[in-house]
Structures are given as C-alpha cells and as structure tokens.
Design goal:
Layout: H1 5-14, H2 18-32, E1 36-42, E2 48-52, H3 56-64, H4 72-78, E3 84-85, H5 94-105, E4 111-118, E5 124-131, H6 135-163, H7 177-187, H8 192-199, H9 203-217, H10 222-231, H11 241-245
Antiparallel strand pairs: 1-2, 1-5, 3-4, 4-5
Helix pairs in contact: 1-2, 1-6, 7-8, 7-9, 7-10, 8-9, 9-10
C-alpha cells in the first residue's frame, strides 16, 4: 500500500542507512505521482552525493560528463534561496541546451521543481521533483504538492547528513575587506570593470582579489564564490558594500549595475 506523507516522515525518522532512505524515496515518487524524486548534495569543493529515482545510467553519465559545472539547475540554485521551477532558469546557452536534451533523453523529464537547502559551510543540497508533462499539468502538480515537497526536502537533508556525517566540510577562511567588497559588487550585478572603478584598482588587481576569495571559499567559479559568501554570512547582497561589512569608505558608485 502506498504510504502517505505522515507515514513517510515517521519511516524516514527511523531509517538507519541510505539504502532505507532510497527505498522511501521511491515510495514518495509514487505518492506524488511524478517521474522522479531526487536528493543531490554538493560540497563547496565539488564533491557530490545523492540518491533518488533517476536511471543509474543518467547518474553515471552526469558524473562522467562533469555536468555539475554547466547544469543550469545547480547554477541557478547556487544563486537563489527559494524553491525554483526549472522554467525560470536560463537554458539559453548551447551547453545548457545540450545538457537539457541529454537529460530528457535519459528520462529526467521536461519539468522540474528544485528546493535549495544551504549548509553552514557552503554546501548545497537540492530536493528535486521532475516529470514529463505539459505546463498546465505541471502547474497543478506543483500547486498541490509544493508545501509537502519543502517539508520533505528538509527532512531528507537532515536524515542524509545524519547518516553521512563525514560530509560536513571544514569552515571557510575569513575574507579580507577588499575581497568582500569585490564579491559584494559582483553579486549586485556590476561588471568587473565597474567594480574595479568603484574600488579604485586595476582589473588585474581585482582579478587577484576574486581568485583569492575563490580559493578561501573553495569555490568552483565566481558565481559559486558569491553564493557561498552569502550563505556563510560573509557578505550581504543589496544596498552597498558598506552595509555588507560596515566600514567601507565613501566612494562614487556607478549609476546602475551592468545588464546581463
């Protein structure tokens, strides 16, 4: 008999091994009547871990093709804190389009809804429900199940990290004031040239600050560095760099951020 949500949470609480959680995930997929339910954990240095109902061939191909670097879902969720419908993500690049085509070919589905869960040291976990359907059917599914998915996502994450205790990364190193300035303005949408002008430094010097910050944050790229700095509370996106760290001296700001 298919279990309901309360039964799932009780069973999840009792689970002692990932194999048990995997079986429960299959039950949840059937309960929600979607093609797939997946949990995907990514550390700050790119280590991956997960379970769910994707075809094992797709999971293996994802690793072999190093799709973590280009996956629009991962990239988009590193930049956001709220649940993400895949239709709101940027799939316009050639690599993004090739990835999407490959994922659909392997049965992932053309619709998806991912819930980002951030850890204390820059790790990111995603709970994802995916399905093959038209927009109207998918909208009804997400409207019906969104609250339950958010609840399940956090319970799954808590259980996964409880079982896999070794997956708690080391704390990040502190950033310098200049590194915080650079990441703050990049996160606000300014171009590198504008940030260099703001900080009265050359773009070469700015690049050095960014690379230093990336190293300290164990970030794969600048977007990842900004996301991790925000998650760690090292910077605040919005307002100005002065509001982010409290001691930024007055400088003239550009009239508006760069458009992308």
């Amino acid at each position: 008999m298919m279990m309901d949500l309360d039964q799932f949470l009780v069973a999840l609480d009792k689970a002692k091994a990932i194999d048990e959680v995997q079986l429960l995930t299959v039950e949840m997929r059937d309960h929600f009547k979607v093609d797939h339910i997946v949990y995907h954990w990514v550390s700050a240095d790119g280590e991956q871990f997960g379970f769910g109902t994707y075809d094992p061939a797709w999971a293996q191909r994802y690793v072999e093709m190093d799709y973590l670097r280009i996956d629009p879902v991962i990239i988009g969720c590193f930049q956001r804190f709220d649940p993400v419908d895949w239709r709101s993500l940027d799939w316009s690049s050639k690599t993004g389009q090739r990835f999407r085509k490959d994922a659909i070919y392997h049965g992932v589905g053309n619709q998806g809804f991912s819930i980002p869960i951030r850890g204390p040291n820059g790790q990111l976990a995603l709970f994802t429900a995916s399905h093959t359907s038209c927009d109207e059917t998918w909208d009804k599914l997400t409207a019906t199940h969104k609250r339950a998915w958010i609840l399940v996502a956090h319970y799954l994450n808590q259980k996964a990290l409880q079982i896999e205790k070794v997956r708690v990364p080391e704390p990040v190193r502190a950033l310098s004031p200049r590194e915080m300035d650079a990441l703050t303005y990049l996160g606000m949408g300014y171009s590198r040239g504008q940030v260099a002008d703001l900080l009265h430094i050359s773009e070469h010097t700015l690049r050095a600050y960014i690379e230093s910050a990336r190293f300290k944050l164990n970030a794969a790229n600048t977007t990842h560095a900004v996301a991790r700095a925000v998650a760690e509370g090292l910077i605040v996106i919005g307002g100005s760099a002065r509001s982010a760290r409290g001691d930024w001296p007055g400088r003239n700001e550009p009239s508006k951020p760069a458009t992308h």
